[in-house]
Structure formats: structure tokens, C-alpha cells
Amino acid sequence: MKVIAIDFETANERRDSPCAVGLAWIEENRVVRRHASLIRPAEMRFLPGNIGVHGIRPRDVEDAPAFPEAMAALLPEIDGALVLAHNASFDVGVLAATLAAYGLPQPAYTSLCTLQLARRLWPGQPRYRLSALAERVGVTFRHHDAGEDAYACAEIALAVQREAGAADLPALARQTGLARIQAPRAARSEAGLAARALRAVAAPASRTAQEIRFVVRGSRGTPYDVTLVKGRDGYRLRCTCVGARFRPDCRHVVALANGEVEHLISGDLAAVAALPALLGLDG
After folding, report:
1. Which of 42, 199, 210, 280: CA 20 to 30 A from 112?
2. What pLDDT, on the 0 to 100 scale, is given for residue 5?
3. How far apart are CA 66 and CA 23, in angstroms?
4. Whether the predicted pLDDT of 96 surpasses 80
């Protein structure tokens, strides 16, 4: 069974805002490979508190791959693996939320939390933070660097395994009963989403504005509403920004029509994917 430690850093309070990912692969009871990558969040909104933790700023990820590209080669590795994480509910939540936000399938895997492991097998430890446990097992690392955190998590798990006398980490997971199965989830159907969106725009205008509506961030951070409306020549996007008063195809409208979601604050990403068909741009 593959064993991989994983760690995410996020840009803001939302679980679907990863800005970095780190992984460490374990084979034959040792770390054999490590990986780290910055990620460009769909919403480039970084909270000062998050920046204060990991030091990653918007400018650092401007040229980084988006989540689907950053994870393309990693998701097959996670599929069927035992995935370790420190405070696993957070990292598992980030993975699940971001996969869902992009309409991507979730692989089937088993998660094991090293925080829970340490509490179970090292009772009386003064602190169970990653840095405190790394110090206990003699691991030096840069805390809140995703790649380094994944490595520290892996080494902590191996130390617990050795002290517990387990043959390997899957055996330790079975022994403790702390592993959690993460069920697979299929990708959302593009055709189904487009059909749902078409049904929505066939409804009265008031319902259309509710169901096919986006909020985007302007160049100065001002939020604008972009809604799908029906005109004499079909459906079009209408924006509340000043530029849209002079030309209907303002930059916010053009960006959404092209599938660009970098400045999207809220709105269904699946509806963005359906826009070319609704606007007659897919032919």
C-alpha cells in the first residue's frame, strides 16, 4: 500500500483556497521522495493572518499552476494510498473542497492523522503541534513550508510506528483503528451542468439572476455583479462595473466568457464552464 504524507497551505479562511501543497512518499519505512509546489488559488484573496503563517503572497503565486494542473500528476498517486497529515481533518478538507470547487473526481484513499496518533501513543506530551513533535523525534524543518511540513509529518509517523512496534504504517493504522476511509466521488458531468444551466435561464428573469450570477473583483478590489440575462438575440452577461455602461463586453464579462476565474469572488464554477454554450461561443 502506498503511503504518502501531505500538507496544504491556504490563502484565506476557505478550504478551497490552497496556495501550496507538499508531499512525502514513504517506502520500506523511510522517506524516499518529496515534492512541493505553489498553487494559484481561483480567488486571489490572501488574508494577512494566513500570510503571517506561511509567508506566501499573491505575487508569489501569480505564475504558479492552478489546482487542477498542480495536482494532475499527484492525484493518481493519492488514489488507493494511505495518506498521512497532521490535523488531517484540515488537509483532507482542503483536498475535498478544492476538488469539488473545480468539479474534479476525488480519489479513494485512507487518511491517518499524526496528531491523533501522537495523542494516542505518546500521552502526556506537553504539546502536540507539528513543530513540538518534530523536535521530539529530532527532525529539523522549516515550519509552514508545505513540503517541509509533509516531510516532518512523515518522520513523526515513522517514529510513532517504531515505538509502537508496528511492521509498517498500514499495520499501525489497523492497530490503532484511527484510519478513516475517504470515499471516491465522481467528477461532475459537464453535459449535465450545461443542461441544468440552460434550464435555469429558461426560467423568468428574476430566477435567472439568482441562479446564473457571479461576483467578480475589480482592479481596485471593488466587487461587481455579473448576471446572465436574456436579450432579443439570445443570452448575454451583464456587469455592474462602470466600464459596462459604455460597452457591454467589459473585461469582467470577457474574462468569464473565456472561462477565466482568477478574479471570481463567488459563483458556481460549473456555471462558468457552461457559459460558452449558453452564450453561443462553443461553435
Report:
1. 42
2. 98
3. 17
4. yes
Burial of 237 (0-12, 13-18, 19+ CB in 10 A): buried
- The pLDDT of residue 198 is above 80: no
| Domains of the chain with CATH codes | 3-182 (3.30.420.10), 190-279 (no CATH)
Q: What is the distance between the alpha carbons of residues 249 and 281, in angstroms, rounded to a whole number?
A: 14
Per-residue model confidence (pLDDT) at position 92: 95
> Model's pTM, two decimal places?
0.68
Rounded CA-CA distance 265/213 in Å is 11
Return the percentage of the chain with pLDDT > 90, whole number: 63
Sequence-ordered alpha helix ranges (H) in 64-204? 67-71, 75-78, 88-101, 114-121, 130-137, 146-164, 169-176, 190-201
Cell output for 12: 484565506
Rounded Cα distance between 164 and 114, Å, is: 13
Amino acid identity of residue 28, one-letter, is E
CB neighbourhood size of 175 (10 A): 15
What mean pLDDT is reported for the chain?
Answer: 87
C-alpha cell at 78: 493519492
Distance of CA 208 to the CA centre of its chain: 29
- 16-30: buried (b, 16+ CB within 10 Å) or exposed (e) per residue? bbbbbbbbbbbeeee
What would you measure as the largest C-alpha separation in the chain, in angstroms?
74
Residue type, 138: G
Query: DSSP letter string over 183-213?
Result: --BPPPPHHHHHHHHHHHHTS-HHHHHHHSE
